[in-house]
Automatic annotation (TrEMBL):
InterPro entries: EmrB-like, MFS, MFS_dom, MFS_trans_sf, Sugar_transporter_CS. Its main location: membrane. PANTHER family: MAJOR FACILITATOR SUPERFAMILY, MULTIDRUG EXPORT PROTEIN EMRB-RELATED. One of its GO terms (cellular component) is plasma membrane. This is DHA2 family efflux MFS transporter permease subunit. The chain crosses the membrane at residues 50-72, 84-104, 110-130, 142-160, 172-189, 201-218, 230-251, 263-283, 303-321, 333-352, 358-379, 400-419, 458-484. GO terms for molecular function: transmembrane transporter activity. The lineage of its organism: Bacteria, Pseudomonadati, Pseudomonadota, Gammaproteobacteria, Pseudomonadales. NCBIfam families: efflux_EmrB.
Length: 491
């Protein structure tokens, strides 16, 4: 075999394992979604703690994503990538051994920290294996793979959980991660930046402190009775201090974590705000739908997982079709169409009923998926079309980071309102039950059954309230579509 052939084969192998790593890290985010009831029962996890399964992964990945390229430039791409793979495998293995909620959440944090590095570096490795002329067309394909992992994770996890257990969900990724590690060890050459790259650690640290403080505040507030707890005050102060220091840093320094030039571009600002709402809806819908089907309506995990498939088909299918959209069509029209479809699907979700079958969930999920699949590429095109080309690399990182924070904060917000509204609705429903109702049972088993029924009704009403929050989120950002300028030809 000649050198050229061997090099081409090595490049193809590296590209394939980089894409496999991309899929694995994105699929493991929602993988436990269809098996929440079994995970909660096995680990004695409360309803509010279940939300941490997603927010821990997302928040941890948001911390490491911005520094992934700096780490690769400073310590070497191969070394950092292998370390992330090892950390990801450790998180998977610890997740299978977890016996308490804290241990499981800790394992999810490790997975998220590694995923935040794997995602951008996998793309970097894959892009470098392609000829220069093929690189611009690769980004949409990579994004489609990330979306495929997110939407297929619940189906895969639900099927494994139904026929085996919830722990084998994580076993599945271990040999694949080991295979990626082996291929990278054999074929990837070490690469460092020369000179050593710089990074605004103060700006990044203050921003991260503010966002993590906000995340902890939202995650812990319901359990700790909000500001009656010293812990919540500490988290609120950390949030305020971090965001204050970051704001002062941005306003007083010429070079920092976020270039001030980005704030001068109206298209980028408006598109980023809409993209935040995109992230807010993307995973929050999944975090609400699967527990509704599994815990409230009583569907088995495999059915719960497969009922999310129409949403994934609509999302990935629409995203790929958008790549073939005629260039002469104004992308702002697609942004408006995507926002309208997502809002319409969220409005249809308000009509869910405990008596429904799978049809409404499949139809609304498909419509929402199509809207999200149209919205994402259209927003990306509009956001960068009027931006200075020198700012695009930095803007790309910020743009995607905002989507991640939209997802993690969205899941936290709906979990707060779900927890509080379930308690409020349970109290309201129980208040109408008095010992003077002739039909009211008196035996203890019958009363337990009645309480179970009331709890399910209260939880279902609370879920409907959270779908309303998602609808409001899209309606709030929808006027920003009118502020978008017509895109110009990109360089």
């Amino acid at each position: 075999m000649n050198t050229h052939t061997a090099t081409a084969a090595d490049a193809r192998s590296l590209r394939l394992v980089a894409l496999l790593a991309t899929y694995i890290q994105s699929a493991n985010l929602p993988l436990p979604n269809a098996a929440l009831r079994l995970i909660q029962g096995s680990l004695s996890m409360t309803d509010d703690q279940a939300g941490w399964i997603f927010t821990a992964y997302l928040a941890a990945s948001a911390i490491t994503t911005p520094v992934a390229q700096w780490l690769a430039g400073r310590f070497g791409l191969k070394r950092v990538y292998q370390s992330a793979l090892a950390l990801f495998a450790l998180g998977l293995w610890l997740g299978t051994l977890a016996a308490t909620p804290l241990e499981f959440i800790g394992a999810r944090v490790l997975q998220g920290l590694a995923a935040g590095v794997l995602a951008p570096l996998s793309m970097a490795i894959a892009v470098e294996t392609l000829p220069v002329e093929h690189r611009p067309a690769f980004a949409p394909k990579w994004t489609a793979l990330v979306l495929l992992g997110i939407v297929s994770g619940p189906s895969l996890g639900g099927w494994i959980c139904e026929y085996f257990d919830w722990r084998p969900m994580f076993y599945l990724s271990l040999p694949l991660t080991a295979y990626i590690f082996m291929v990278v060890s054999l074929l990837l050459a070490e690469k460092k930046a020369d000179p050593r790259p710089s990074f605004d650690f103060f700006g990044f640290g203050s921003f991260t402190l503010g966002m993590i403080g906000l995340q902890m505040l939202l995650d812990r507030s319901a359990r700790m009775d909000w500001f009656d707890s010293p812990e919540i005050w500490i988290e609120a102060l950390a949030c305020g201090l971090g965001l204050y220091l970051f704001s002062v840093h941005v306003l007083t320094r010429k070079a920092h974590f976020i270039n001030k030039g980005l704030f001068a571009d109206r298209n980028f600002l408006c598109s980023t705000a809409i993209f935040f709402a995109f992230g807010f809806v993307l995973l929050s819908t999944m975090a609400l739908t699967s527990p509704m089907l599994d815990e409230i309506l009583g569907y088995p995990p495999d059915t719960t997982g497969f009922m999310t498939a129409p949403r994934g088909v609509g999302l990935v299918g629409a995203f790929l079709l958008m790549g073939r959209a005629p260039a002469w069509i104004d992308p702002r029209l697609f942004v408006a169409l995507g926002v309208a479809l997502v809002a319409y699907a969220n409005w249809l979700m308000l009509g869910y009923s405990p008596l429904m079958d799978w049809t409404p969930v499949a139809i609304t999920g498909f419509i929402q998926g199509v809207g999200l699949g149209i919205l994402m590429p259209a927003l990306s095109k509009v956001a960068f079309s009027t931006l200075d080309p020198k700012l695009r690399p930095e803007a790309t990182g910020i743009f995607n980071l905002i989507r991640v924070y939209g997802s993690t904060l969205g899941v936290a917000v709906v979990q707060i309102f779900f927890f509080n509204n379930t308690q409020a609705m349970h109290s309201a429903l129980v208040s109408n039950l008095t010992p003077y109702h002739q039909a009211l049972p008196t035996s203890l088993p019958a009363l337990e059954g009645l309480n179970h029924l009331v709890t399910h009704q209260a939880a279902f009403i609370a879920v409907m309230g959270q779908f309303k929050i998602l609808l409001v989120a899209m309606l709030v950002v929808s006027p920003l579509v009118l502020l978008l300028r017509k895109p110009v030809a990109t360089n």
